[in-house]
Amino acid sequence: MPDEESFTNLPAKWMLDKEHQPVLANLLLPQFGIPVGETGVPDMAYLHFGHMNPIMIDVPFGHAPTPEDMASFVGAVVPVAQVAMTFDKLREFSQQIQQVLADYDSNLDASV
Predict the structure, then answer these.
(1) Long-range contacts of 67-73 (CB under 8 A, 24+ apart)
(2) pLDDT < 70 stretches in the chain
(3) Would you call 51 exposed, middle or buried from its count of C-beta atoms within 10 A (0-12, 13-18, 19+)?
(4) pLDDT per residue over 8-27, tens digit each?
(5) Labelling 47: which of 31, 86, 107, 112 has CA 20 to 30 A away?
(6) Buried b (16+ CB within 10 A) or exposed e, 17-37
(7) Strand 44-51 relative to strand 41-42: parallel, antiparallel, unpaired?
(8) What is the rounded CA–CA span in Å between residue 35 and residue 77?
């Protein structure tokens, strides 16, 4: 595998795709990929993003659901995106997400 210094960053332009609008995701199911090679170590991670609507259980108005009411409840998760990526790419995305959160937190602190 070439070392990192041999790679060149190329400019990229994100295209607007009117067919694929952002969707709300409130659940994440990360999974290891299939073990590969002689070591049996996965080379990919799978990220399944989903959305589950708020729970609606038929109980009298003003009453909280009891454990018995909740026992048979199974929430339906609607898959909204599924991606697979190498662990190197997952680490890169993780760093980018951490930077976005740090920027958000500093802006939040500055607005108080």
Answers:
(1) none
(2) 1-7
(3) middle
(4) 778 888 888 888 888 999 99
(5) 107
(6) eeeeeeeebeeeeeeeeeeee
(7) unpaired
(8) 27
